[in-house]
């Protein structure tokens, strides 16, 4: 038997890692539901993909349209239309890169920063009662586990590993 895996007689062949992944997936569904509810309370109401795009741009000041499309796992036309909508809403600006006037840089507006801060604060307010219902040991274990997950995912250097298929460009 390989470390971390159950033999075929244990639980119908499911590995320990498989059971852990299922438990995490169930917990993540609940967490995502809290986050999406918080996002829906914010004004303006933005789809999850637009919020993800805004967070991506905020975290990468030199990001261009091609890099955003790659990060989101969408085609360039889809990313361009997404940015069109965010720009029309006053959340994003396209500016020329300082080193290359032909390359467009994506930058959050002050309003875009405020919207993301509002969504984050609403998320904290939604999650706080959940954490209050947990013991300190459970909270510490969750924090440790999430940190380890983030480090392991980052180490694989493959954000696409947790992303579904790219949306069609049409």
What does this structure look like?
- This protein is mostly helical and 170 residues long.
- The protein contains 6 helices and 2 strands; from the N terminus they run H-H-H-H-E-E-H-H.
- The termini are far apart.
- The protein is globular, with a radius of gyration of 20 Å.
Set down the secondary structure blueprint.
Layout: H1 16-41, H2 48-59, H3 65-72, H4 76-88, E1 92-97, E2 100-108, H5 110-132, H6 136-155
Antiparallel strand pairs: 1-2
Helix pairs in contact: 1-5, 3-4
Tell me the β content: 5-15%
Helix and strand sequence:
HHHHEEHH
Q: Bin the helical content.
A: 55-70%
End-to-end C-alpha gap: 48 Å
Summarize the model shown.
InterPro entries: HTH_MarR-typ (IPR000835), MarR/SlyA-like (IPR039422), Tscrpt_reg_MarR-type_CS (IPR023187), WH-like_DNA-bd_sf (IPR036388), WH_DNA-bd_sf (IPR036390). The protein has 170 residues and is mostly helical. It contains 6 helices and 2 strands; from the N terminus they run ααααββαα.
Features:
2 domains; mainly alpha; Arc Repressor Mutant, subunit A; DNA binding; WH-like_DNA-bd_sf; two-stranded antiparallel sheet; disordered N terminus; transcription regulation; 170 residues; 6 helices; transcription; disordered C terminus; DNA-binding
């Amino acid at each position: 038997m390989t470390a971390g895996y159950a033999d075929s007689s244990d639980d119908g062949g499911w590995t320990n890692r498989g059971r852990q992944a299922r438990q995490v997936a169930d917990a993540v569904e609940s967490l995502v539901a809290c986050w999406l509810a918080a996002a829906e309370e914010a004004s303006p109401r933005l789809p999850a993909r637009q919020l993800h795009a805004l967070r991506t741009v905020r975290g990468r000041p030199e990001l261009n349209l091609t890099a955003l499309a790659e990060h989101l796992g969408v085609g360039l036309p889809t990313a361009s239309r997404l940015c069109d909508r965010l720009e029309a809403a006053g959340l994003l600006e396209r500016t020329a890169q300082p080193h290359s006037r032909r390359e467009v840089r994506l930058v959050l507006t002050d309003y875009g920063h405020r919207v993301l801060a509002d969504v984050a604060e609403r998320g904290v307010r939604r999650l706080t009662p959940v954490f209050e219902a947990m013991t300190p040991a459970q909270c510490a274990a969750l924090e440790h586990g999430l940190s380890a997950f983030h480090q392991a995912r980052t180490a694989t250097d493959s954000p696409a590993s947790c992303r579904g298929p790219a949306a069609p460009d049409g």
